[in-house]
From TrEMBL:
It is found in: Cell membrane. Residues 180-232 form the HAMP domain. Its EC number is 2.7.13.3. The keyword Metal-binding does not apply. Residues 206-240 form a coiled coil. The keyword Transmembrane helix applies. It is a multi-pass membrane protein. It comes from Novibacillus thermophilus. Residues 240-455 form the Histidine kinase domain. This is histidine kinase.
Length: 455
């Protein structure tokens, strides 16, 4: 048995067994006191019955009959007159019986009362009932040997001991089963966490409960899934970096080797050097974007927010990017009905818009229109970037903001870019505490919505 099931079992057993012992003790005391009270009450009642007979038929034969009846029973009777002289007795008079007979009887009730109830240390329990006839007055004393009461309590104790042992055994079995049932998911979770610590994230925990254990199991499973996803993403990230670095380096090395040949014409050499410069620029851009992502991941990327008119910022962005749209034959339209103010980092805001517009330009055919529209909704600003390009398949939409993720799996370099632009956009949006939404239809276009929360 596993340690945890032993601990849980012992803990449950100690708690339940302690509770059972307390309950059994209280129940035992209650039953024992009830049985003693019943014996004392029966003793008083028997004395009252003898009194009634004496007061109705008081003669020597009646007195003898009462004594004879008690000889055949488990109780004893002693009848005395008012002065305490013994008229008749069904047993030998012992010092204890004499002591009880000589007790003060001034306040004895007509219906009798108990004069000795100490069954643990005294030889008798006893009661006395007064009687009064025309011929005589006196008392009827009833005695019962406490050994009989002790035997009764002893039997009761034996029954309780047997019941207690049986209950403890049944409790232990039930707790053993329950502790294993409770411990089983914990043991599975422990084994799962061991696998996680060793780098094995492909675990599956079955959860059939809605309690805290079920929530813990769900949390571990989610952690495993996230770690597995991160591991896959890391491997893909490293593979992508290797690919993205190797390609420009290969171009640079290859064209550098060609450019240093003596027989090349000046124009060819310049052409090769331009290619080297172009690839070096791409390499610099890639490294810069990787550094930006690293800063964002380490929370060392600072955002300096300030209030500024959004329409003025869009005009500046339009001047920057409009030539590339004109060269691509795509119309770029800005719709800003009112010069709303936005709280943002101006440089990072411009970086977000330029990245998104650059993507729209790359994936839109000539003759189409790309629109940037600003709307206000309560205290929030919504910025819509709509294009009429190739669109994004629904299966790819959840992943477009991942690093190096490309809808075009062939990794064609015709469109340029590093595959990090949208990842940086996502991190910048998060740093501003904004939201970004994407909707798209294949061959119809894509709409990206930035929701800038008001402050």
């Amino acid at each position: 048995m596993r340690k945890i099931s032993i601990k849980i079992g012992l803990l449950f057993f100690c708690l339940i067994f302690t509770m059972e012992v307390c309950l059994f003790f209280l129940l035992h005391q209650k039953i024992a006191h009830t049985r003693i009270d019943e014996e004392l009450s029966a003793l008083v009642t028997r004395g009252n019955n003898h009194r009634d007979v004496l007061e109705t038929y008081y003669n020597a034969e009646t007195i003898q009959h009462i004594a004879l009846m008690e000889v055949k029973s488990d109780t004893e009777v002693v009848i005395t007159n008012y002065q305490g002289e013994i008229i008749i007795s069904s047993t030998d008079i012992t010092n204890e019986i004499r002591r009880l007979i000589n007790t003060d009887k001034k306040e004895i009730h007509r219906n009798g009362q108990v004069i000795e109830n100490d069954w643990k240390s005294k030889p008798y329990i006893a009661s006395v009932t007064p009687f009064e006839t025309g011929l005589d007055t006196g008392y009827v004393y009833m005695f019962k040997d406490t050994s009989q009461v002790k035997q009764l309590i002893k039997q009761l104790n034996r029954h309780f001991l047997i019941a207690g042992i049986a209950t403890a055994i049944v409790t232990a079995i039930i707790i053993l089963i329950l502790s294993r049932i409770v411990a089983r998911p914990l043991i599975k979770m422990k084994e799962a966490t061991k696998k996680l610590s060793k780098g094995n994230f492909s675990i599956q925990l079955e959860n059939k409960s809605n309690d805290e254990l079920g929530e813990l199991s769900d949390s571990i499973q989610r952690l495993a899934n996230e770690l597995n996803h991160l591991k896959t993403e890391r491997n893909e990230f490293l593979a992508s970096i290797s690919h993205e670095l190797r390609t420009p380096l290969t171009y640079i090395q290859g064209y550098a080797d060609v450019a240093k040949r003596d027989h090349l014409s000046v124009s060819d050499r310049v052409n090769y050097l331009n290619i080297i410069i172009e690839e070096a620029t791409k390499l610099t851009t890639l490294v810069t974007e990787l550094m930006n992502l690293a800063q964002l991941d380490n929370n060392t990327f600072t955002i300096h927010k300030e209030w500024f008119p959004i329409c003025d910022s869009l005009k500046k962005i339009s001047k920057t990017i409009m030539p590339s749209f004109q060269e691509a034959g795509i119309k770029l339209v800005f719709i800003c009905p009112k010069n709303y103010k936005i709280s943002a980092d101006p440089i990072r805001f411009e970086q977000i818009l330029l990245n998104l517009l650059d993507n729209a330009r790359k994936y839109s055919p000539r003759g189409t229109v790309t629109t940037v529209e600003v709307e206000q909704e309560n205290s929030d600003l919504r910025i819509f970037i709509r294009d009429s390009g190739k669109g994004i398949p629904s299966k790819d939409l959840p992943f477009i903001f991942e690093r190096f993720y490309r809808v075009d799996k062939s990794r064609s370099r015709d469109l340029g870019g590093t595959g990090l632009g949208l990842a940086i956009v996502k991190e910048l949006i998060k740093a501003h505490h904004w939201e970004i939404e994407v909707s798209s239809e294949v061959n119809k276009g894509t709409t990206i919505t930035i929701i800038a929360r008001g402050e």
